[in-house]
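Journal club prep, shared notes

We agreed each person brings one worked example of a sequence with its structure written out as tokens. Mine is Leiomodin-3. I'm keeping it raw so we can talk through how to read the token line rather than staring at a rendered picture. Sequence first:
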Amino acid sequence: MKLSKSNKICPSDIDEDEILAMLSPEELKELQSEMDVIIAPDENVPVGQRQKDQTEKPPTGTFDHRSLVDYLYWEKESNRMLEEERVPATLLPSEVRAQTPEGSSETEKEEIQEKATDTNETTDKLPPKEERKINKLKIPKLALDNIKMTSRPSGNETNLESTLDKIRNNNPSVTEVNLNNIENIPKEMLLDYVNALKKNKHVKTFSIANTGVDENIAFSLANMLRENRSITTLNIESNFITGKGIVAIIRCLQFNETLTELRFHNQRHMLGHHAEMEISRLLKANNTLLKMGYHFEQPGPRMVVTNLLTRNLDRQRFCV
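Then the structure, token by token:
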């Protein structure tokens, strides 16, 4: 029996998102395990995303490494203190009389007293015991001569005002802006940085990890990516962006053809299943993103995004 051409199903007509959304979590796990067996791992995908998580298992016992180390240290110090306390015993005159038997002769009593006096003299002649310091770890001396002391605890010495002026003036010497871990950056200044990057043509990398970026700044970043044509790497990890802000940034990538790496892992709020599904759907319209710094909790969006990044990488190879 032969099928006519009209009955053939085109692969492009199949909606993968609709099929994945209808599957239960157990079916998604079973699908992922089958795909891991069929499809060979891609060397361009990070190692942590090539294989499934196999570390979920109940604890094997109540073993506590810290308690064991503390006990071993306590036992070692106790034995050392016992060794130090083992000094020659000095007998008092009353103890000497108590140890001498009643029926002993005078010569034997004199010998016992001489031994007692000898022990007292030897103990008096012993040098004073040196004080010993107890150290858990032998910490080596650090060479602090080559270490640069900074005024900020984070160690990031970027001058916020001068860097912002250079970005506004489109200074070609500024190709990387690193504001990571800088404490207490005003939200208004972060917005000024984002707005200044809209027309900038020289900055390639913009990193604002752990700077308190919230939802409003995320929406401004999305608008900036619609206009900017120079940034290739954007790092917004360890901030307070919710799923709506991340989805807004991904949605604007369909108008951006220069960004190749986007990192938004370790946010204060979890993105959620719906946000991850929306990210995997919107990313189909982008053909230039090659790296994404985020670990998807759901296996379905994780597989879709991995395939899309592989597709973009293959397109770049063939174009070159």
